[in-house]
Amino acid sequence: MAEYRIGVLDGDDIGLEIVPVAVEAVKAAVARHPEVRIEWVPLPIGYRSFVEHGNSLLPQVLETLYTLDGWILGPIGHMAYPKDPNCVNPHPILRRNYDLVSNIRPAKAYPGVSCINPKTDLIIVRENNEGFQPDRNMYKGTSDCMPTPDMALSLRVITRRNSSMAARTAFELARQRGGMKKVTAVHKNTVFKLGCGLFLDACREVATEYPDITLETVVVDTFAMKMLMDPTRFDVVVTTNMFGDILSDEAAGLVGGLGMAPGLCVGPDYCMAQATHGSAPDIAGRNIANPFAMIESARMMLSWLANKKGDAAGVRAADELAQAMTAVLTDKEAVTPDLGGSGTTTGMGQAICRKLAQL
Ligand code: ATP
Q1: Ligand 1, atom 1: closest residue by C-alpha
Q2: Is 13 close to ligand 1, i.e. is its CB under 6 Å away?
Q3: Which of 18, 248, 258, 297 to mutate to test the pocket of ligand 1 (most atoms within 8 A of CB)?
Q4: In a domain, 111, yes or no
Q5: Ligand 1 atom closest to Cα of 78?
Q6: Residue 237 neighbours by CB distance under 10 Å
Q7: What is the pLDDT of residue 256?
Q8: pLDDT-based confidence at 27, cuts 50/70/90?
Q9: Is residue 259 lining ligand 1, measured as CB closer than 6 Å?
């Protein structure tokens, strides 16, 4: 018997629509395996939490998260938040508080989804908590500052600890996938001799623990070009925060856009399912948002936790959900308009649950 405690934080805008669909899909997958039990813990977050409880990220929510195995976080529309100290963007706090050092962002092409390269199947692991990210790479203060009105400085932070942790995540994934058994470390040590040099050094150190996996290193600008021309030459990619942010959106573009781009943030103790896309206020409330990336993020979390606990039934439930999701993508009546279909958010979720029942 494997037991999990999973938080559900809807987020903003389309988050209120796609997160419930993702939860239903995981529930349907797990229901086929009675030896897997999930306790779902709904928690308020974001603008709705600010309106209802006076804070977008309540202290008691932060406390509760420490008691969970992981949680689903819907997209957050913080750009539209009022300027109020109690209405903060929860992203940096969540990623840093729970030491979610690695952000795993797969880019996979699926039959039925029109895309630039139908053979794409790679994963980008991005260091999540340092680099140029000014809202989380300092103990106090921000690393994006203006010493004079006409000069701005952005400081990048690279540590051996976080680089090694992101690299280890990448090597573990390469081993688990059993594909090309290759990790590509993307860097710019031609210019950032110390920063990217340290990052690469950490990757090389970790590589010695994985003799079955090859480590290659590619300069970021060359990588951006090569990934467009032939994504099939890459398996698992590891890189620093900002490079990873940009490259994972480029990779999403290769496989059909943001609605197809899932993500999982992981650290030593916790994990957080979080799709790559934002809260898409332009389509919110119309039941047309593509729930795929959110469901896939939640599915990845189940798979990650089940692998960690050695729970074979949980891994099977995650694999079966993947099969059902892949099958639905070829059904134009089920998929949402961004995928050229005539379906709805809830309808696509229900179609996935029906497919699961037919497996
Ligand atoms: P952020 O900076 O918060 O990541 P963003 O500025 O990248 O957000 P998104 O909210 O991701 O913007 O939206 C970008 C475009 O992609 C919008 O036109 C939006 O409608 C579309 N989009 C994003 N997610 C989805 C989805 N799940 N289904 C359909 N369309 C989406």
Answers
A1: 278
A2: no
A3: 258
A4: no
A5: 3
A6: 28
A7: 87
A8: very high
A9: yes
Could you tell me if residue 213 is inside a domain?
yes
Whole-angstrom Cα distance, residue 162 to residue 131?
10
HSE, CB side, 13 Å, CA atoms: give it for residue 313.
13
Look at ligand 1, atom 13, and give the residue with the nearest C-alpha: 280
Among 207, 235, 254, the domain boundary falls at: 254
CATH of the domain at 220: 3.40.718.10
Same domain, 81 and 184: no
How many helices and strands (H and E) does the chain possess? 11, 12
Determine contact, residues 46/54, Cβ cutoff 8 Å: no
Nearest Cα residue to atom 21 of ligand 1: 280
Give the range of the structural domain holding residue 207, as residue numbers without chain letter: 116-254
Q: Which of 132, 117, 157 is nearest to 245 (CA)?
A: 132
For 224-247, write each residue's pLDDT tens digit.
Answer: 999 999 999 999 999 999 999 999
Identify the band that residue 1 occupies on the pLDDT scale cut at 50, 70 and 90.
confident
Residue 202 scores a pLDDT above 90:
yes
Domain boundary among 254, 274, 292: 254
Atom of ligand 1 lying closest to residue 290 CA = 28
Residue closest via CA to ligand 1's atom 8 equals: 278
- Ligand 1 in reach of 260 Cβ (< 6 A): no
For residue 97, what are its two tokens? 């508080």
Examine the domain organization and report whether 315 and 341 are in the same domain: yes
Q: Could you please report the per-residue DSSP string of 318-335?
A: HHHHHHHHHHHTT-TTTS
Q: Which residue owns the Cα nearest ligand 1 atom 14?
A: 280
Q: Which atom of ligand 1 is nearest to the CA of 76?
A: 3
Number of domains into which the chain is organized: 2
Does 299 share its domain with 209?
Answer: no
